[in-house]
């Protein structure tokens, strides 16, 4: 009888596993929408002001007051993310120094598998000025289809308050000037 | 247990196992070159050293070409030893690149870091080149296989080292020992707190 249960359990495993495989999340597709990612409302006043979020609890990325939002998926432990950090800082600086862009384009980073301590260390090491959020338990990472790092997602906030992904790519942004043109095209739409 | 309950329990077990597997070595630096050994027995050895006692002496070949001995740091530097199980595996490929940007934290505690695996030097050379230029010595405990790991009691039954961290003060005394789950990356903050404590 015991052997029968073991056999039936194995059958159950075989039946259940494909169901989970089928449920695997795909990376965000251009033209599609973000999953409902919830990030903690920062306590830092500068970050709250940058993102235009208020109160306590969580917010979703499309709630950020902007026309275009760039999301960097990184890890403190990722060599390419470390190497890429100064370039993203440069992108942020170019946006902030442009009167046309600074209120319309925002950047956030999500440190997958990183604790608050680790994200804070990354921020301090590379003097990152835009908000970084820890995703220590890989919750957001799973929602995003477990993409490799660094990974960049760009979303355009539409007039009706919804949004559309216009950029979703693995790897560094090789050309900031070219990427700013892509952003400008989205803003002109 | 009734048959239906047995199936449900089995299915839930699969779900928990599936959902709790963390993902490491995500960096595109490694492309598709990481071998995933799957979930391993978290710890598979018995520690042979104790906090408050002298750390075992060792001399190992390093990637720089110069052998490195623990005793060369005596009276000069605190020493952190990071044993990792194997080159080209997920968690190990994450751990040292993280340490590579935290040199300042080690410097603040007047500490050096020694990275050790049981791989041979050619393998370690190829693997660590994907991480950028590591500031800390990388040592090979390949032959006699895992002898130093065994001195500490962190040589596993499968021939790999455990994922273990040791803090040794300037007097050569063990001030922190941590043998963690081989499947998980240890928290950086715990190591730094241990170093701060050892440096007081």
What can you tell me about this protein's structure?
The complex is a heterodimer of chains A (189) and B (200). Chain A is 40% helix and 21% strand. Chain A has 189 residues and is an alpha/beta fold. Chain A has one domain (28-188): Glutaredoxin (3-Layer(aba) Sandwich). The longest helix of chain A has 21 residues, at 2-22. Mean pLDDT of chain A is 89; it is low at 11-22. With 200 residues, chain B is α/β, with parallel strands linked by helices. Chain B has a single domain (3-198), classed as Glutaredoxin (3-Layer(aba) Sandwich). In chain B, strands 5-4-3-6-7 form a five-stranded mixed sheet. Chain B has a two-stranded antiparallel sheet with strand order 1-2. In chain B, a hairpin with a 7-residue loop joins strand 1 (59-60) and strand 2 (68-69). The N and C termini of chain B lie far apart (56 Å). Chains A and B meet through helix 1, helix 3 and helix 4 of A and helix 1 and helix 2 of B.
Briefly say what this structure is:
The complex is a heterodimer of chains A (189) and B (200). Helix content of chain A is 40%, strand content 21%.
Features:
heterodimer, A: 189 residues, Glutaredoxin, two-stranded antiparallel ribbon, 6 helices, 21% strand, B: 200 residues, alpha/beta
CATH architecture call of chain B: 3-Layer(aba) Sandwich
In terms of quaternary structure, what is this? heterodimer
Q: Report the largest inter-chain contact.
A: A-B, 34 and 32 residues
| Beta-strand residue fraction of chain A | 15-25%
**CATH topology description of chain A:** Glutaredoxin
What's the pLDDT, averaged over the residues of chain B?
88
Low-confidence stretches of chain A: 11-22
Largest sheet of chain B: 5 strands, mixed
Q: Tell me the number of structural domains of chain A.
A: 1
Number of domains of chain B: 1
The first-level CATH class of chain A is given as: Alpha Beta
Please describe the topology of this protein.
The complex is a heterodimer of chains A (189) and B (200).
Chain A lengths: L1 H21 L15 E3 L4 H7 L6 E3 L7 E7 L4 H18 L8 E8 L3 H11 L5 E4 L3 H5 L7 E7 L5 E8 L5 H13 L1
Parallel strand pairs in A: 3-4, 4-5
Antiparallel strand pairs in A: 1-2, 3-6, 6-7
Chain B lengths: L2 H17 L39 E2 L7 E2 L8 E6 L6 H11 L2 H6 L2 E7 L3 H9 L8 E3 L6 H6 L10 E6 L5 E7 L7 H11 L2
Parallel strand pairs in B: 3-4, 4-5
Antiparallel strand pairs in B: 1-2, 3-6, 6-7
